[in-house]
Amino acid sequence: MTRLALVTGGTRGIGAAIARRLAADGLRVAVNYRGNEAAAESFRHDTGIPTFRWDVADHDACQAGVREVEKALGQAVDVLVNNAGVTRDAMLHKMSLQQWRDVMQDDLDALFHMCRAVIDGMRAKGWGRIVNISSVNAQKGQFGQANYSAAKAGVIGFTKALALESARKGITVNAVAPGYTDTDMLAGIDPQVMEGIKAQIPVGRLGRPEEIAHAVSFLVDERAGFVTGATLAINGGQYLA
Ligand code: CAA
Question: pLDDT of 56-74, one tens digit each?
């Protein structure tokens, strides 16, 4: 049976590129999104990929959402890509509790919620692929991102632990750590700050969402069964972990 992939935050940016690529690779694909109906509508229209709305920060919504996807598509999720995430940049001395919590809940708690919803099915089947999107800023730290750097570093630790637990069950769990990639997430950064960031990227440009999707495609392939617990850095040379 054709494998079913679920991509969170999959209607825009890196998530949309991943969803399109996995569909082009021949997988069945479903995507989750939180609230941007216009983006979801245009993604559905362009790709024909079904979209499902829930908040990955909500544990119960994740359990219900995954069951809904599985019911609609008639099979269990084989491939999970935890891509949804947010930034709430501020220096720590100006950071609110809400800015801290938003990022921890969306970028780290969501991994527990989503993996918990699919892991039993993967273990029962003896096959699964989980890819968690981390960040270069987890590896190097980033001015103004104590929340995001902490959550995305947590993603890497989570990935390693679950990889160990899952290895004997045919499930691989890996992380991808993108550098600065050309998506809406960069839109809020001051242009002058952005110029400074670009100057730190040896390749001399931002990453493209398709370049991150290419790595995910590799990691979820049948032939990547010996790759687990890894963090693949895709950052134009900005940080060499
Ligand atoms: N390193 C050292 N000092 C810095 C600095 C840096 N990177 N950035 C700013 N400063 C300095 C400033 O020069 C300034 O110094 P003075 O007080 O001497 O003038 C001081 O720190 C305060 O800077 P700001 O006035 O800019 O502070 P702010 O509170 O207005 O803004 C900020 C802080 C919102 C964090 C802003 O600096 C910013 O947007 N930084 C970029 C954060 C970033 O890279 N986010 C990534 C988002 S994309 C993403 O996260 C995806 C991914 O995975 C890669």
Answer: 999 999 999 999 999 999 9
The phi, psi pair for 113, rounded to 5°, reads -55, -45
Contact 27, 47 (CB under 8 A): no
What is the pLDDT, as a whole number, of residue 157? 98
Number of other residues whose CB lies within 10 A of the CB of residue 60: 9
Query: Would you list the DSSP string of 141-180?
Result: --TTBHHHHHHHHHHHHHHHHHHHHHGGGTEEEEEEEE-S
Q: Read off the pLDDT of residues 124-155 as tens digits, 9 standing for 90 and up.
A: 999 999 999 999 999 999 999 999 999 999 99
- Closest-CA residue, ligand 1 atom 26, reads 193
Integer Cα distance of 122 and 47 in angstroms = 27
Which amino acid is located at 16 in the chain? A
Angle at 132 (CA atoms; ends 185, 24), nearest 5 degrees? 80
Among candidates 205, 185, 22, 17, which has minimal Cα distance to 106? Answer: 185
* CA–CA dist 210, 178 (Å, integer): 11
* pLDDT, position 113: 98
Q: What is the DSSP string of 31-55?
A: EEESS-HHHHHHHHHHH---EEE--
Question: Ligand 1 centroid to 191 CA: how many Å?
Answer: 11
Asked whether 185 lines ligand 1 (CB < 6 A), one says yes
Which domains, from first to last, does the chain contain? Answer: 4-234 (3.40.50.720)
Whether residue 87 has its Cβ less than 6 Å from ligand 1:
yes
User: Residue 155: which residues within 8 A CB-CB, separation 6 or more?
Assistant: 82, 107, 108, 111, 132, 133, 134, 138, 175
Model confidence at 44, in pLDDT bands (50, 70, 90)?
very high
